[in-house]
Amino acid sequence: MLSYLKYYTSTLCLFQQTLRLNNERFAVPEILFSPSDVGIPQMGIAEAITHSITSCPVETHPHLFANILLTGGCTLFKGFSERLLTEVRALAPVEFDVNIMFPPDPVKYSWQGGAILSKDPEFKSMLVTKEEYEEEGYRVCADKFDV
């Protein structure tokens, strides 16, 4: 029987494994779109995006569907953005534009955005401290963020 895992015996590689994939490598990205295919009772990424958008106030739906930004290493799978666009388009109301944006470096993009935001002079006013939350609870968030 062919083993897919190779365990190293060297102390230099004590915690490393090699996973050999053939046709399985095509199934890995598919899990993001159809986790139920492997027995995971969760929404796929297109359904999760649509659910997240439709959980927001109705007046924001057109803007959110038109501004979907892909970040993270999994977005680098070949054809990922095209597939996601097709699936979200099928789930979105027909009257809304659906636009998927793909930054030049999706792996670092979120971090870069956070780094830029943290240098903004207004950044501290966008935060709720632990002390504020412990004193006022959810109300401080509702007041500060108009929720």
From TrEMBL:
Family annotation (SUPFAM superfamilies): Actin-like ATPase domain
Highest taxon of the lineage: Eukaryota
Name of the protein in its database record: Actin-related protein 6
